[in-house]
Write a structure and sequence with these properties.
By secondary structure, this protein is an alpha+beta fold. Among the domains are: about 50-115; about 140-245 and about 255-275, Alpha-Beta Plaits (2-Layer Sandwich). The protein is built from seven helices and four strands; from the N terminus they run αααβαββαβαα. Strands 2-3-1-4 form a four-stranded antiparallel beta sheet. The longest helix has about 60 residues, at about 50-115. The radius of gyration is 53 Å and the shape is rod-shaped. Keywords: Coiled coil.
């Protein structure tokens, strides 16, 4: 009789023993490079280790060197990226500023295009009037000095400057004229007016105050007056014409030519300088060149 086979015992569960995981101390100081290189040399030179293990260690060492090169390159790229970001930020700020300036210029251009030309000329004309008024205040006008008959213009200029210099010397005016030139067109009947621009209005006022001293000068028939605007010259001319007219007794002087009244100091300077002061001989010692006409004053 066959004996029944006993059932096979159940398989026992296999227990796999796991080794302890070693914790990596990230806070500790890294091993020195010399120690690591020395340890690698010992492993590679250890003949008891399998060849394949030493091969793996050798490749890992090569990977370490390549990784160090990559880290250095990465640091350089990071620095370069930071520099580019800073430059980009500066360019953005500059671009914003330029856009703002362009907007302002466009607004100003639009305003100029829409403005009439008269308004644009006002600042220029105002500044020109200020400069012209400044030069007029430091200028005087001399009438009665006969013109030089020389052919060369330079000789005529020297002659006019010598005449003015002798007049200023007689009045004790210690300055050099800035400009001396004739005004108007050449007229054979009478000499042209001579305009003298002095360094400042102080010297022109001083010259007009000392004009009566020309009574003692050796030359007569010359007149000095301040440089006046056209409206004032027209008014004075009208006054002279009204006084010389035989029917001027009932004419009011104030109604001849309406004009802005002169200041008291200017009026006194004109009244003092309108009398004849110089005579009829050449100022620079040459031939008689001085006219006694007073029509141009």
């Amino acid at each position: 009789m066959d004996t029944p086979l006993a059932p096979a015992p159940a398989a026992l569960p296999v227990q796999i023993r796991r080794g302890k995981k070693h914790k990596i101390d990230f806070g500790g100081s890294p091993p020195a490079s010399d120690d690591l290189d020395h340890a690698v040399d010992l492993v590679l030179n250890d003949a008891s280790l399998p060849a394949h293990l030493r091969t793996v260690v050798s490749h890992l060492l090569q990977f370490k060197d390549q990784f160090a090169v990559l880290l250095q390159k990465n640091r350089e790229l990071i620095d370069e990226n930071d520099r580019f970001r800073k430059e980009n930020s500066d360019l953005l700020n500059e671009n914003t500023s330029l856009k703002s300036q362009i907007g302002n210029l466009r607004s100003e251009l639009s305003r100029i295009r829409n403005s009439p030309l008269e308004q644009l000329d006002e600042p220029k004309s105002a500044s020109f009037c200020v400069c012209e008024e400044t030069e007029r205040k430091r200028s005087i006008v001399i009438a009665g000095i006969a013109e030089c008959e020389a052919n060369l213009s330079s000789t005529k200029v020297i002659y006019d400057n010598n005449c003015v210099r002798r007049i200023l010397d007689h009045l004790s005016i210690q300055c050099h004229p800035v400009a001396v030139y004739r005004m108007g067109r050449i007229n054979s009947n009478r000499p042209r007016l001579l305009k003298v621009v002095l360094p400042s209005s102080y010297y022109s006022s001083l010259t007009l105050r000392r004009a009566p001293k020309l009574k003692s000068f050796s030359v007569r028939g010359i007149f000095i007056r301040p440089s006046l605007p056209k409206c004032e010259r027209d008014r004075l001319r009208g006054l002279r014409l009204s006084r010389s007219s035989p029917h001027a007794e009932g004419v009011s002087c104030s109604a001849i030519i309406p004009s802005q009244p002169l200041l008291d100091s200017q009026q006194s300077q004109i009244s003092q300088s309108m009398s004849p002061h110089l005579t009829n001989s050449c100022i620079d010692g040459g031939d008689p060149m001085i006219s006694q006409s007073s029509e141009n004053v």
